[in-house]
Amino acid sequence: MDTTSLNSRLGLAINTTDLAYRELVLKTGLSESVYWTLYMLWSSPVPLTATQLAKYSGQCKQTVSSALHRIRSGGYVCQDSPRSPISLTSEGRTFCDRLFTPTLHLELSVLEEMGEEKAETFVSLFSQYVSIFESRMKQPEPAERSHT
Asked: What is the mean pLDDT of residues 126-141?
């Protein structure tokens, strides 16, 4: 198996996907931090704390805090206390529905075009790749293991 070539193709596919999502974000006029913070709040089945938003979105706490400040000033979220979960207001929910529904439809149509079997396989294999990648990231390097 030519893993070097496969890895190059995978890297290109991931980078191309990242660029496509950045282009979608740019069209909204929002910063990436505001966009993804809103997306996390919109797509989560339960309200999230700022700490959870940082963890799940991969953004640092300061970035999420700044994004929340901007979102709060627009009247899109409410929060009882600084450490309590954050909810979208009805205005925020309406804004996010208009913002994210077209992208959701685009994503769903791509999966539909792939066909059920290929889409299931794609998601399953990519999830497996991510799981193995994360597991291997947590393992010490071979040189480090020999010293322990």
From this structure: 92
